[in-house]
Amino acid sequence: MPLNAELPAAVRYLVPGVMGGVVSFVFSRVMIEPLISAAVDYEGEREYAEAQITAGGHEHGHELFTRSVQENVGAAVGVIALAVAMGVLFVVAYTVIRTMLERRGAAPDPTGLALLLSAGMFVAINVVPGLKYPANPPTVGLEETIGARSSAFLTITVISVVGACAAVAAGISWSRRWGSWRAAAAAVGGYLAVVLIAFVVLPGFHEVPGPLTSPDGVLVDGFPAQVLADFRVYSLLNQALMWGTIGAAAACLSAVAVRRATSSSALAGSVRQ
Fold first, then answer.
1. How many angstroms separate the CA atoms of 46 and 34, rounded?
2. Spatial distance between the Cα atoms of 113 and 93, rounded to a whole number of angstroms
3. H or E segment and range at residue 200
4. What secondary structure does DSSP assign to 140-196, as a single string?
5. First-to-last C-alpha distance (Å) of the chain
6. Phi/psi of residue 212, nearest 5 degrees
7. What does the DSSP 8-state code read for residue 107?
8. What share of the chain is helix, strand, coil (3-state, %, to 5)?
9. pLDDT (tens digit per residue) in 110-144
10. How does strand 217-220 pair with strand 212-214?
């Protein structure tokens, strides 16, 4: 039975992402937003110190939206929209994988498959690219390398996702000939080999601001290491919560669909009798 059969398409495709987005936004607002504010404050302090060194005027650019609007309305819209997109991608991937398994005579557990797929997508989309290019708060990174950093991050993400899709397809295809465990091991090994090669070939960026000094001494310390570490850890945990919620919501919807189908079958049988 396909994921969430008998349920409206809007429920099947949108509910997991919406729930994942809400959980992600709440966590981000409570745990990550204070770190972003600390990074913004550091940036302002550093810009002021640089202006003092060059004896130039220091002007802050006018923002179209206030910080309050950005961290509440703007962040909520962005986070939930991203989660909905990931939720739709998840349902499509679930349907494709389940169809492939059923065509080969397998009968995967809907709940187990949903949770396993959400974990796999978290690894392929967030963990692997993040190992090469971890998330950075404002101020970490040079303006002149934004294009190169964005291109490199997009490249490793595409390689990871395409490699993961190929590994899943190969594993399912090989399972009948080699057995499930051997096929899975070979597929994972191939994926890791591709990712490691990409890690070596793609450039690295190490642009955490160091101390700002003048003849009078240190004006501003380097970017706070604790803020950077907390931001990276919480960003990864935030994505884990989003994917976990998407997987759990999809699993619950699938269980509801199974109960509906069972009840409908039982009712149809009793009517025939």
1. 18
2. 11
3. helix 180-201
4. SS-GGGHHHHHHHHHHHHHHHHHHHHHHHHHHHHHHHHH-HHHHHHHHHHHHHHHHH
5. 25
6. -100, 120
7. -
8. 80, 5, 20
9. 889 999 999 999 999 999 999 999 999 988 888 88
10. antiparallel
